[in-house]
Design brief:
Helices cover 42% and strands 17% of the residues. The protein has helices at residues 4-28, 60-75, 102-112, 128-142, 157-167, 185-193, 196-205, 227-230, and strands at residues 30-33, 36-39, 49-55, 81-86, 118-122, 146-153, 174-178, 216-218. The strands form two sheets. A six-stranded mixed beta sheet has the order 7-6-3-4-5-8, sandwiched between helices.
């Protein structure tokens, strides 16, 4: 004979099991991309290409972290992927001439990863506002529907998202964030946020609609060498600006 207390325990166990099983889908629908949680439902592309926009940094640790997040992001994406690497040069050699662009560093990482997806290289943008102005030029030029992912650092997210919405107000994007930071990153970012409107206005004023040859579409298997970067130490830490 089953005592009333036993019946109560069995009833509670059944209810708990049923609730857990029914709750499972909402938890399994979430994947960790870098350290940023995102909903896997965005991966149902229905034949639409995904554009992975990686914002560069002159701090190698931040740049590597963003690329790690981006490489994690594409693991859950079905369909065609287009990489959009953006960032000009902020480093100079002893002779004062340009040494290497942020976009080239990211391109080198993709080469080492054996990437076979299409790559767009913007190695002219000098700041976040210019990143998005040139991205807008390219998107307007190709006139193609895409699922857009933007990869940057968590401390940079508020400023980057504000600029993105001012420059591309009709475009929706998924943000994938890395959480590596630096000693002055947050304090510097707070200063930069006070210049958002000025930086956007200046970038838009300088906007010129680029010819299609200004952007290089490449395939991973064709990236034979990047001579100016082969000898660089990507783990070298460069102060963030």
């Amino acid at each position: 004979m089953i005592l009333p207390i036993s019946i109560t325990i069995i009833f509670i166990a059944i209810i708990t099991t049923w609730s857990t099983l029914n709750a499972t889908p909402q938890y399994t629908a979430i994947k960790r991309a870098g350290r940023a949680l995102r909903d896997l439902s965005i991966n149902n592309n229905n034949g639409v290409s995904s554009l992975i926009v990686v914002l560069g940094s002159d701090n190698n640790k931040l740049l590597e972290d963003r690329m790690d997040v981006a490489l994690n992001t594409i693991q859950g994406i079905k369909g065609d992927v287009i990489w959009y690497l953006t960032g000009g040069v902020k480093r100079y050699n002893d002779k004062g001439s340009e040494k290497i662009t942020e976009a080239s560093k990211m391109l080198h990482i993709l080469k080492k990863e054996g990437n076979t997806n299409a790559i767009v290289v913007d190695d002219k943008a000098q700041n976040t506002a210019e990143n998005f102005v040139k991205l807008k030029e390219w998107i307007d030029h190709i006139n193609q529907d895409m699922n857009i992912h933007i990869v940057t650092s968590a401390f940079h997210f508020i400023r980057a998202k504000t600029m993105f919405e001012k420059i591309l107000p009709n475009i929706q994007a998924t943000w994938d964030l890395g959480y590596v930071s630096c000693a002055s990153c947050v304090s510097d970012e707070n200063i930069h946020r006070s210049h958002i409107n000025k930086d956007v206005e200046q970038a838009l004023e300088n906007e010129t609609y680029l010819q299609s040859t200004s952007f290089q579409i490449r395939r991973g298997h064709s990236l034979d060498t990047i001579d100016e970067y082969d000898h660089e130490d990507i783990n070298e830490d460069i102060p963030f600006h």
